[in-house]
Amino acid sequence: MSKLNGYLKLVFLLSLSLWSQSKASAEPKSQLLKVGGDYEVTAIDHLNDSEFRVEFKAVTPTGKFDVLSLHSNHVHVAVRIGQKLRLSAEILSSNGHSAEVAQMVIFIANPQGPIPVWLLSNRAGHQDLRATKYIDMHSPLTDYIVM
User: Fold this and answer.
1) pTM for the whole structure
2) Could you give the C-alpha distances from 8 to 14, 36, 97, 121, in angstroms and in order?
3) What are the start-end ranges of the E strands in 49-141?
4) Using one digit for the tens of pLDDT, what is the confidence trace for 63-121?
5) Can you give the residue ranges of every domain in the chain?
6) Which residues contact 90 (CB under 8 A, 6 or more apart)?
7) pLDDT of the residue at 52
8) 131, 34 in Cβ contact below 8 A?
């Protein structure tokens, strides 16, 4: 009986240790805000020689991050006004129901399946660029199609 009690104590301590490690690793290292869902491209503005602003509006508004804007030095050739896209984005700053994004992955429709395209803001500065969920889960060198 004492061997069984010792074994149960060992299993309990091991599981408690593993649980505390998984809880610590699951806590975010920083307070990055992320958003994802279906959005429509509502505006592409050429602000000056080296800056564009692309605006995305949520297909189903929730009251939070319904309008996203990305300031970049270019616009991807496949992005057009009126286009509906699924996206995953990291929030740079927010103001009520709208937000400016630091980076995003948009999924462009293709007969062979959606093509992920990574878009970066020129206002984000130096950051850890593995922040969006999709980028964390996949290897850009092997998963992405360069267009």
Assistant:
1) 0.65
2) 10, 44, 52, 53
3) 51-58, 67-72, 84-95, 98-108, 115-120
4) 899 999 999 988 888 899 999 999 999 999 999 889 999 988 999 888 888 888 888 88
5) 1-29, 34-143
6) 32, 33, 34, 101, 102, 103, 104, 131, 132
7) 92
8) yes
